[in-house]
Amino acid sequence: MTATRPAAIDDTTLDDYASRGMRRRTGFGANPCVLVIDFQYGMTDPECPLGSANQDAPIEVTQRILAAAREAGVPVVYTRVAYRPDLADGGLFVEKVPALGALTLGSRWVEIDERVAMADGDYLLTKRHSSSFIGTELQQVLQNRGIDTIINVGCSTSGCVRQTAVDAQAYGFRSVVVADAVGDRSPEQHRANLIDLDGKYADVVTSEEAIAAINAVAAARAGAG
């Protein structure tokens, strides 16, 4: 399948990757889910040391993707980073990034931003590492639901989104990252990581492409019914 070039990451590096036998498309499967990664107040509210207003635009895009997913009956899974108040479960991640210590259970910083609030039937999992797979039940939840494709949205592009998208591929899921529905504190790292993900680990797509794929799933299910 020919690789499209998401406008958000237009770069000659993508052409170089393609010329070296990279950037093949793994595409969307028949049973996708939307994975909303860490759009919690600790990441989206600049009042928190980890928060950034750079998430505002991706959140607006994510709202449209969530609306399409719920209309189509596509499952939605949320993740958040949260620790015990005594940080006994913090490990080296918190040692490396002490600001993570603000993300304690019971605090506002671990609540999902109301702009992308959960709906009935959505699933929330708590993680303590950058990957949404490590130390969580995500793989089991997805396998139990027959999910074959993960549509990644959330933050941050260079951290938890990247690690989750890489691990999704490793665990055998088609991994899709929506370029305009993910954000980072650093625009440079956002762009660089989208380029690298698209070359090696995931299909980086626009929100329009993601919504079209979700709508196609709904249409296929309606036709099968």
From TrEMBL:
Query: Which Pfam family is an annotated match for this chain, by its short name?
Result: Isochorismatase
InterPro entries (UniProt xref): Isochorismatase (IPR016291), Isochorismatase-like_dom (IPR000868), Isochorismatase-like_hydrls (IPR050272), Isochorismatase-like_sf (IPR036380)
Spans traversing the lipid bilayer: none
Q: Which UniProt keywords apply?
A: Hydrolase
Looking up SUPFAM superfamilies in the UniProt record yields:
Isochorismatase-like hydrolases
Q: Where is the Isochorismatase-like domain?
A: 33-209
Q: Which superkingdom?
A: Bacteria
Q: Which GO terms describe its molecular function?
A: isochorismatase activity
Protein's name in the database: N-carbamoylsarcosine amidase
